[in-house]
Specification:
Length: 127
């Protein structure tokens, strides 16, 4: 039985989907003919793992998914900018998908969901 506090908000589900799509687009950008395919696929797999865990309300997974998404975009940037035809556009699409996903993970509804899932409803941070 789930209560309203532990029910996953739609914004969290949308955030996970956006993170995964953005990471996938960034990974396809970075795995060109000379790209480090093994590193990028490893980053992509770990990013997917943490995105799913963040969707389940895990605070550390949310932080890790944010950092790994940023790392994947940084790794993809040099390869995307080497492609004069559509590389920059692909990287922009990846960022336009992933960045709102990260932002949605830190919205108040998502924060309340994470607090309810971790059991620290009454804890005040910053005191």
């Amino acid at each position: 039985m789930t209560t309203d506090a532990t029910r996953r908000p739609r914004s969290v589900t949308l955030a996970v989907v956006l993170l995964m799509l953005g990471a996938l687009v960034a990974a396809t950008t970075a795995t060109g003919p000379q790209g480090p395919a093994t590193l990028v696929l490893l980053l992509l797999a770990v990013c997917f793992w943490f995105a799913v865990r963040a969707g389940r309300g895990r605070r550390t997974a949310r932080t890790a998914a944010s950092g790994l998404t940023a790392a994947l975009l940084v790794v993809a940037a040099p390869f995307a900018l080497d492609d004069p035809l559509y590389g920059g556009t692909t990287l922009l699409v990846a960022a336009l998908l992933a960045v709102p996903g990260v932002v949605l993970l830190y919205r108040p509804a998502a924060e309340a969901y994470v607090r309810a899932r971790s059991g620290d409803d009454d804890v005040e941070y910053g005191e």
